[in-house]
Amino acid sequence: MDTAADIIGLWPNAVALADELGVSVITVRSWKQRNSIPPGHWLALVKLARARGIKGVTLEVLALIAERATRPPPANASSPTSAAEGRAA
After folding, report:
1. Could you tell me where the DSSP H helices lie in 2-88?
2. CA-to-CA distance for 28 and 8, rounded, in angstroms?
3. What is the spatial distance between Cα 27 and Cα 37, in angstroms, rounded to a whole number?
4. How far apart are CA 52 and CA 6, in angstroms?
5. pLDDT value of position 77
6. How many CA atoms does the CB half-sphere of 31 hold within 13 Å?
7. How many Å apart are CA 3 and CA 66, to the nearest integer?
8. Torsion sign, CA atoms 33, 37, 41, 43
9. How does 30-59 read in b/e, with b if 16+ C-beta sit within 10 Å?
10. C-alpha distance from residue 15 to each of 21, 25, 27, 48 (Å)
11. Tens of pLDDT along the chain (89 residues)?
12. Hey, is 2 helix, strand or coil?
């Protein structure tokens, strides 16, 4: 599990997760699209995963996923923009 979308995908569908968390399906789908689960839902998510027998969903895993999502890319990473700028110089 490397992403918030991976965590969300452990449920049968967005409807099931939304029902269990008490949020709308649109909310869960937006989390998946943004690849981000708000920290205020982490504890409930961990408890629900445990109740479903889903292993590996912990507060630590959710925090690591969130940290990775906000970390800037390495300085040596090539992006399409930086490659195009290099050719223009």
Report:
1. 4-8, 14-21, 25-34, 42-52, 59-70, 80-88
2. 8
3. 10
4. 16
5. 60
6. 26
7. 8
8. positive
9. ebbeebbbeeebbeebbebbeeeeeeebee
10. 10, 5, 10, 14
11. 799 999 999 999 999 999 999 999 999 999 999 999 999 999 999 999 999 999 999 999 999 999 998 877 777 765 554 444 454 54
12. coil
Structure tokens at 4: 């918030």
d(CA 30, CA 78): 28
Three-state SS at 62:
helix
- CA–CA dist 52, 8 (Å, integer): 13
Query: What is the distance between the alpha carbons of residues 32 and 3, in angstroms, rounded to a whole number?
Result: 9
Task: Look at the block and give the residue holding tokens 């965590």.
Answer: 7
DSSP output for 4-17:
HHHHHTTSS-HHHH
